[in-house]
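Supplementary material to the annual report.
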Amino acid sequence: MPLPCPKWCFISVEQLDYKRKEMSRKRGVLLKKKILVANRGEIAVRIIRAIQELGHTAVGIYETPDTAARHIRIADEAIWIGAGPRCDYLDIDKVIKAAKNHNVDAIHPGYGFLAENPDFAQACADNDIIFIGPTAEVISRLGNKVIAREIMAEAGIPMVPGTDNLPEGDAGLQEALAFGAKYKYPIMLKATCGGGGRGIRLVESDEQLKEEYSIARSEAKAAFNDDRVYIEKVVVQPKHVEVQIIADQHGSTVHLGTRDCSIQRRNQKLVEIAPSLIEDKKLVDEICDTAVKAAQAANYTNAGTVEFLVDSDWNYYFMEINTRVQVEHTVTEMVTGIDIVRTQIKLALGKKLLFSQDDVQIRGFAIEVRINAEDPKNDFMPEGGKMVSVYRSPGGYGVRLDGFVYQGFTIPEVYDSLLVKMTVHGYTWHETVDRMRRCLKNFAISGPKTTIPFYLQIVDEPEFQSGNFDTSYIEKHPELFDYSDDHSEVNKLAHLIAEIHHKKQNTYAI
Amino acid sequence: MNRIVQGMSITEVLKTVRDADGYFVCNTARDLSQSDFKNRILLHTDLMAAEAREKAGYFALEITGGASVHVDILRKQVDPFLKLKLLREAMPNTMFQTLCRGVNLFGYRPYPQNVIRFTVKEFAKYVDVWRVFDFMNYIPNMQAVFEEVQNAGKILEPCICFSTGPEHTDDFYVSKVAEILDVTGDEIILCIKNHGGLGTPKRIGSLVSSIKDKYPDLVIHYHGHNTDGNDIGRITEAVLSGAEIVDAADHAFTGFYGPPPILSVIHTLRDYGKEAVTIDEDAVIASSDVIRDERPHYSLFESQFKGFLPTVQIHKLPGGAMGSSLEQADKGGFLEKMPDILHKELPKVQKELGNYWSVTPGSQILWTTAVSNVQGEEDDRYGNASGDLRNLLLGKYGPFPFYNPPEWIYEKVLGADWKQVLEDEGGVEDIEDMDIDKEKEILTERLGKEPTLQQLVLYLQHPNDAVEFFKFEEEFGKVYVLPPSIFLKTGGFDLGESIKFTDHLGKDHVIEIGPSQANEDGETTIYMNVDHDSRSYQMAAEQAAGAVAVVTLSKAEIEVLAKAGDYRAPFAANVCEVSVEVGQKVEEGDKLVILEAMKMQTPITSTVAGVVAEISSSVGDAMQAGDKLVKVSDGEDDE
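Predicted assembly:
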């Protein structure tokens, strides 16, 4: 049974400690909540850490392929929910059942899986479980791209020209063709229920539109069980700038500044930066204020992200609101000092925001890279199924790791290939880039190929170093893939020393 | 007393030596390395000693030549030219000396004239003193080298190889000196090359006196080995009898088969009133002190037999061949037969083969023949003759100096019609000049880039080994910067061990050894911190023992197969030539492949007439006994 929030929640630490002890003595561990993490991988670890820091009990769930996963080792309790793969993490009934069986007070959905499924948020509400995130209604409305656009249009948020949901059959195609004629190609054909880079199709001509329109619909049907699609004008080579929003249930909404996630490959983010490197301070403030306005228009609560596209003339357009904690939330945490996941939990439990907009200060820069078990040279082919035979990670000032692999861990083939997120923080942009380079070099992962050498190429690339990049960056820099083994003299000699060490003699000298 | 310094003309050098009130010492570091450390003393160690050696005031430092050029690229992975260049920078005054095998240069068989001249020309850029010998003391074999050395304005030091026995009289050697002087003129230094350390001090004294009686102005450089522990006696007698230059080495590294310690020579002769002129004794001591701690890292290459070997007077193997012979016996598993080979068979073979001088490549012929005789069937001595023994009997290396071997040996090696064979094929033959431009093209193709002249020189002498070395350097860099404690490390490093070295550009590095991890496929990842960056190195899976079915065939089985046209390697060897192509018609006696083992080449010839059906070997392959080489079918099968 959820407990009302005691009034003295926001008193000093000493008092709190005293009260806590007193309460514990009198009434058992009533302040202690049990929170289930409906996720896996690094984000499960990240959330469990926050839960445990708050003094709550963390409950993990897992499918069979995750039997050796780290998140269930560090969770206070772990519940096997099925053989998987993926289907059980996506199974609302099973997750709710597990939560109820273990007397769980709240559920954090992480990102992916059920995070943006309004049915799941609703199921939590129906079962007296706190869903750590916005309400089912908000998720539902913002999850529908067309409704989201309507809300934003009403609030006067600048948007990329687009259509409502296209009517079924030929009428839809005709409307699409008319849009193409009016706003010129290229245009984007988007699944209404898509997201995260899925269900998007670039169309460059009438012919292509005619050809692919019905394919797009049937794909949307297959992927999201909803064949509705709509059209947006394509902003050519935009920057992807997003704003972290955080709102309590008491009417307070603040932003935590911007992130630049322009460095993407096929709409999948690879490198994320906070804050955006846009130099025009006024523009950045305007974008942030717009984001707050958008969140308020949607009655948003808890943490969310308002995504914008910024074109080469510095026009910005609302794209969507993500109603979950994002992979890249770490960069915002580094530059603001605010623990977003901890705040999410507290806000979901009904607490007020501890800080106002004026309290939010951006200090320095942070970069996050997603270190994936993938071979960048082979079209980022996942390296799942391989064992991580060596895992050594960097340390030192300004480096943060959010991972879940360990030496000896075999990467399951059935989930995504993210091994660890590395976030570095620095006082200036160049310091941050330098730190990122150093930390990438300090990594040693053997077994699977990783994206590390690719990121090393990026940090040495002059345009990246000067902050000059947009969503076409990877495409424009094919040379980033031209990395090879280090041919430095010391590496050659080290190679020989490795052989002498391994073979227990120098076979070239005996 | 004026020091002899690099760059002096031969006339100046000879005058300085003749005018000196005492004798000069040559530091034969190369000979020490070859005789007592299987040629493995690294450039790193020589560079450590360079400053003190430069100060010591030697006549010269012998630092290249002999087998060292080959071992430099084969086992030390250092460019022999770069080695000389770096040492020259560290030792600007000291003359460098080489040992050259005449027509065989730094290899094991005769090279064409144009290759000899090209090679000498390139090495002469760094080498001041050229000690040249021929194992048959056959002067024409050395003539091309003589000429090129003199053309280059370098000091020529022709040798008379010395040995013992009834034929080896003073008169004989004096006549050999006359032959040399006829060709070279007076502006030379004569070397008495006592590579085995044979004879007594008295015998050497007598030899030097005889030569000096006839040629009082001829400068004599005595070279000996300390195999029997008595070389200082011989050196003493040589100097007392008039030799002006003697060989010795740094005491921190002296062993049993190479040169004796320099200081002992100096101290001994001082009591006889002879001074080593221009020698700085403190610097001699300092040279040893600075490299002493390196010696333990070379222990793997020190002799299997510890102790002096006075029986050298019986077996006569030169110091330079002792190490490799023992190594071969050890690896071949016949170490226990060594007394038999050394003390019974080898002296017998020596007498049978004309009592010539046991030095490269002649010593290898004597050695392999003796080993083969002992290893083979008891009544089948000379039954398994190497190609080089055949060439020796055919006179390819020059005429036998005293007498020819008995006829039964000719018959055994050359066949029943040996007289005809000898008539048809016998005698020294001129080796056709090599098309050097064409070789350069081939090398360019193998390297993927234009070779330097020096690379070409190395390639012309040891084609496969040179290419291997160039590729090694491409992959592993300039490894001469690694001390023996790293380069020759055995048993692996300790986890967490820090390894420090300075690369050839002068940059310091530190490597920390991390963990090793093997995956399911047996591939191992070696993890190291290189200059504080984490790096990993993938090592291919090693072939598990027994993974490859080893076919071992007996010698008899191999012979039976050969009669059926299925030619197998009769012993472990490298393929150095495949002489036929698939589909080619061959007659009985035609050469199929040439194998090389222990530097000796052995042709495998067809025993049947037919067509080459299958070739299972290619140049450079390492074959084990019983491995398939070539199949010859009788040609009647249509398939």
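The mean pLDDT of chain B is 90.
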